[in-house]
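HUMAN: Forgive my ignorance: could you write out one protein's sequence and backbone structure tokens?

ASSISTANT:
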Amino acid sequence: MSFDEMIMAAASRNHSRTVLALDLEGPDPARLVEKSQTILREVGNLICAVKINRQLILSLGLPKVADSVLKLAKTLSLPTIMDAKLNDVGHTNEFMARTYFDSGFDAIIASPVAGWENGLDGVFKAANTRGKGVLLLTYMSNPGAEAFYSLIGKQGSGEKPVFEILTELALEWKAQGIIVGATKPRVISRVRAIIGAALPIYCPGVGTQGGDAKEALNAGATYLIVGRTIYNAPSPNAAAKALQVQPVPP
């Protein structure tokens, strides 16, 4: 089953468009594993995927994350996404992609700013040979992102915002999804207009960063990436359930 099929199946089964960003950190590895697994078990039937950033990887180490969190996610039939934001030269990007995929991740986030040749070409090769997914970051959720992603760049004989150029690259390179901050509904709408129904849009930044779930979905988001709003809540289950009512993607 491909990454797209896995996340669509989980979304349909759990009536949820929510990707849990399990970006916990802490000095006590045993407690961090326990907390991560507890939260995942508590909300596992209310989400459609799990995204892990480098906080958990650096706190626990990749083998421990694979043996605890990824293994549990698999038992819950939830696909896993590594938020690596790959943006290095080709051989480094490809090595990281291979390592994360072979450790059990089903998809990886990369930055198209690295370009194709000796940039992300090896990442897509590693993904395609393993049946994995690549999601491309075209607009981050933090306030400072606008300084770069909304810059006007040259493309051929014309000019357009950088995020539009990156979105078109995601289509050209046949990515499995696009990352756009939920804090920018206008950008989500523009990205959806460019790609039509060709790709899902994943939107981080809901809740703690100020993004509104309903606004993001109405603007064209397919999935919501939610972290602190769920795992820092008094009841992660209740916080995830509040997002569960959103209709699943077609």
Q: What stands out?
A: The chain has a mean pLDDT of 93. The domain at 3-244 is CATH 3.20.20.70 (TIM Barrel).
